[in-house]
Design goal:
alpha/beta; 2 domains; 11 helices; 7-stranded mixed beta sheet
Length: about 325
């Protein structure tokens, strides 16, 4: 299969409307989309990615009115979150509309819905004129793609089209909030911090990513975000002394390691936002450089740090 590369949202939408798979940029990471009303096309997302069938998809919409095509109800807390954070990197778990294919929701009675803010994404979704379910546009388990080149590396020849944009703004995926619970529950930390949600709603629970709650959210049930290199978490780089000299290793964090010469590459980020933005890009660059281990600094679990630590822990899981 030849994968078409285009900068035209209209051309990309033409591919999607005829039942083909299209990778497209958002403000978080690149997504791999299909027409929600064509279940056979949606099924091909799972096949192209090697994605487990029990991992639900997030449906992307461009207008508030489209939410009613995939969700049976929008509870009042969800309405308030939409008013404050949409369009943006926030996914709301809502009751599933009976007309929506169970392929999209992995058989669940809920559906994740997001309204991206990136202008190129919105132009693409307008041209599609249909809700678009889309997980990240990578092979399942790999680091999420933050550039079209990373998408092509993973899925070139397996999908019909890639809508080319630049590097994504956020670098980590959307925050997933279950609005079918009282109070609402954060199932996956992401680009919208929990603290911001609490300013709007007051009390917000943070899920433990286990059991039924975990099943409702993409990106929590299976090993994710992992480079080929082994990720080793570092709480305090200043005390880092057990570097395996037999491995080609890399380092990424906010503070420099005490022995930078022990690493093949060192990435010291200016701030938390830059760290989150660069994480998946650095993971992929380390794989290309042949690194066997990546030492990654954890950060305080507040604000964006909660999402960053979540991605690091999942990448380090073996």
């Amino acid at each position: 299969m030849t994968t078409t590369l285009t900068t035209s949202p209209d051309e990309a939408a033409t591919h999607l409307r005829r039942g083909e798979l299209v990778a497209f940029p958002t403000e978080t990471v690149y997504g791999l989309g299909a027409d929600a009303l064509q279940p056979e096309a949606v099924q091909r997302i799972f096949e192209a990615k090697g994605r487990p069938a029990d991992n639900p998809l997030i449906v992307h919409v461009v207008r508030r009115g489209q939410i009613g095509e995939v969700a049976a109800d929008v509870p009042p807390p969800a309405e308030r979150l939409l008013e404050h954070f949409a369009p943006g990197p926030l996914t709301l778990i809502l009751p599933r509309h009976e007309a929506l294919s169970s392929v999209v929701t992995a058989g669940l009675d809920t559906v994740g819905v997001r309204m991206p803010r990136l202008p190129l994404t919105r132009s693409f979704l307008e041209a599609c004129n249909t809700p678009v379910p889309a997980p990240s546009a990578n092979r399942s388990g790999r680091p999420s793609p933050t550039s079209w080149e990373a998408v092509h590396e993973d899925l070139g020849g397996r999908i019909e089209c890639i809508l080319k944009g630049g590097r994504t703004e956020e670098g980590v995926e959307s925050t997933v909030v279950d609005c079918t619970t009282t109070p609402v529950t954060v199932l996956r930390p992401g680009a919208v911090p929990v603290e911001d949600l609490r300013v709007v709603l007051g009390h917000v629970d943070v899920g433990d990513t286990e059991g039924e709650r975990r099943a409702r959210s993409p990106g929590t049930r299976h090993r994710h975000y992992a480079p080929s290199a082994q990720v080793r978490l570092v709480d305090d780089p200043g005390r880092l002394s057990d570097i395996d000299s037999n491995l080609d290793a890399a380092y990424i964090g906010l503070d420099p390691p005490p022995q930078p010469g022990a690493f093949q590459t060192v990435h010291v980020e200016d701030n938390l936002e830059a760290y989150a933005h660069d994480l998946f890009h650095v993971f992929r660059a380390c794989d290309e450089a042949g690194c066997e281990a990546i030492y990654a600094q954890t950060v305080p679990a507040e604000g964006l740090g909660r999402a960053l630590n979540d991605r690091l822990r999942r990448a380090a899981a073996r």
